[in-house]
Amino acid sequence: MRCLHGFPCAHPFRDSSEGMKDLDIYGLDGRQLKLFLCVFDTVSVSRAADQLGITQSTASHGLERLRKALGDPLFVKSGRGIAPTDTAKELAPRVRAVLIGLEGLRTSATYDPAQDTGAFRIATNVTEILPKLIEIKARICKAAPHVTIHFHDMGSRVNAGELLSAGAADLVIAVSLPSYPSLLLAERLYSDRSVCYYCPKQRGPIESVEDFVEAKHAALDFGASIKSSVGQELERQGIIRRIRMTAPNSHTLAELMRDSDYVATMPLRLHKTVFKDFSYSTPPMALPPITHDMLWHVRNDNAARNSWLREVVRSTR
Question: pTM for the whole thing?
């Protein structure tokens, strides 16, 4: 059953696994897999064709070959656009992993960023290191003007392994953890110190441990029972802070703290961005530096493209 423009309509009774038993997988090649992933990421055949430097007719023909090989429509009409089928959603991370593996076959001499028309995916907590991300974006765009750059908000830093293993990110930049799974490689990237932010219209600076303990604190919510590095250190020192408000990211936290007497212990670098309108004081207790690591999957360690991207990120230290 087909709709306009040759796109299949979703059949209400079709089993997504139907026709998947005898796949012609050996009839596929890397270009077709790259096309599938590009359509999946852009949710548009025309945009995917533009990114890959091919005509829309060639892209449509390639998709039809994929449908026959995989035994699934992959994308169906949805309103004015298209939407991936359940099978396409299931295949996307596996196809991404296959392409990453193929990328690793190339030697460093074969990668030319100026000719690259693909996409880079960097997962991080965007507002935490926004000035650094602006630098990274500028350097990538200068050397690789035809690539698409995706900055993903990764949420909790414990998500790094899943994102890299699934191929959903080329690199992760996250607050350091004491250890990582064996399939992840890590390198220290940035370091910063903690300060206590406050609204000077509503309260004065934190001047003692007693003042810190009595203050109303605002903090990031990492979900479940995950504690920040600051929270872990305060707990180790036996210092209890009253967290009266939490938010999912530093931008939201700063906005909610405006014109209030909350205190937030956050990295100093945020004074250049989301906390620029706040005053800050040095914490009355010793706190370790806040460090960020760059992480990548071990399968990409020798991949020319990933190695180039890591070098770009290193250059922003």
Answer: 0.68
